[in-house]
Design a protein that fits this description.
With 77 residues, this protein is an alpha+beta fold. It has one helix at 33-47, and strands at 2-14, 17-29, 52-62, 70-76. The protein is 19% helix and 57% strand.
Length: 77
Protein backbone atom coordinates (compact mmCIF):
# COMPACT_ATOMS: atom_id res chain seq x y z
CA UNK A 1 0.00 0.00 0.00
CA UNK A 2 1.26 3.45 -0.84
CA UNK A 3 0.89 6.01 1.91
CA UNK A 4 1.32 9.76 2.16
CA UNK A 5 2.95 11.28 5.20
CA UNK A 6 2.40 15.00 5.70
CA UNK A 7 5.14 17.06 7.30
CA UNK A 8 4.30 20.62 8.23
CA UNK A 9 7.07 23.16 8.73
CA UNK A 10 6.10 26.34 10.52
CA UNK A 11 7.96 29.35 11.82
CA UNK A 12 6.85 30.60 15.21
CA UNK A 13 7.78 34.02 16.51
CA UNK A 14 8.74 34.58 20.12
CA UNK A 15 9.48 38.28 20.59
CA UNK A 16 11.89 39.00 17.73
CA UNK A 17 13.31 35.49 17.29
CA UNK A 18 12.00 32.94 14.82
CA UNK A 19 12.19 29.23 15.44
CA UNK A 20 11.33 26.58 12.88
CA UNK A 21 9.33 23.58 13.96
CA UNK A 22 8.41 20.47 12.03
CA UNK A 23 5.27 18.51 12.80
CA UNK A 24 4.24 15.12 11.54
CA UNK A 25 0.56 15.40 10.71
CA UNK A 26 -0.05 11.75 9.90
CA UNK A 27 -0.19 8.92 7.40
CA UNK A 28 -2.89 8.76 4.76
CA UNK A 29 -3.83 6.41 1.97
CA UNK A 30 -2.46 7.87 -1.26
CA UNK A 31 -5.79 7.24 -3.00
CA UNK A 32 -7.85 9.01 -0.38
CA UNK A 33 -7.64 12.59 -1.64
CA UNK A 34 -10.83 13.59 0.14
CA UNK A 35 -9.26 13.04 3.54
CA UNK A 36 -6.10 14.76 2.35
CA UNK A 37 -8.09 17.85 1.33
CA UNK A 38 -9.83 17.95 4.69
CA UNK A 39 -6.50 17.71 6.49
CA UNK A 40 -5.03 20.56 4.42
CA UNK A 41 -8.07 22.76 5.11
CA UNK A 42 -7.78 21.95 8.82
CA UNK A 43 -4.08 22.80 8.73
CA UNK A 44 -4.73 26.20 7.21
CA UNK A 45 -7.60 27.05 9.54
CA UNK A 46 -5.60 25.93 12.57
CA UNK A 47 -2.16 27.33 11.83
CA UNK A 48 -2.52 30.19 9.36
CA UNK A 49 -3.44 32.86 11.92
CA UNK A 50 -0.90 31.66 14.48
CA UNK A 51 2.16 30.68 12.48
CA UNK A 52 3.90 31.38 9.22
CA UNK A 53 3.79 28.13 7.26
CA UNK A 54 7.05 27.80 5.34
CA UNK A 55 6.22 24.64 3.44
CA UNK A 56 4.14 21.49 3.44
CA UNK A 57 5.82 18.28 2.34
CA UNK A 58 4.15 15.12 1.14
CA UNK A 59 6.33 12.09 1.71
CA UNK A 60 5.42 9.01 -0.28
CA UNK A 61 6.15 5.79 1.56
CA UNK A 62 5.53 2.17 0.63
CA UNK A 63 4.85 -0.90 2.71
CA UNK A 64 8.21 -2.27 1.57
CA UNK A 65 10.67 -1.30 4.29
CA UNK A 66 13.64 -1.45 1.92
CA UNK A 67 12.39 1.40 -0.24
CA UNK A 68 13.38 4.96 0.61
CA UNK A 69 10.64 7.56 1.04
CA UNK A 70 10.31 10.22 -1.64
CA UNK A 71 9.47 13.76 -0.61
CA UNK A 72 7.64 16.37 -2.65
CA UNK A 73 7.02 19.94 -1.54
CA UNK A 74 3.33 20.60 -1.90
CA UNK A 75 3.31 24.28 -0.99
CA UNK A 76 6.10 26.74 -0.41
CA UNK A 77 5.54 30.18 1.11
Amino acid sequence: MKMLQILLTVKTQYSKYYTERRGNIGLFDAGNFGALTIVCIKLYSTYLNQFKITNINLISTKSNTNSKPQSKTLTRF
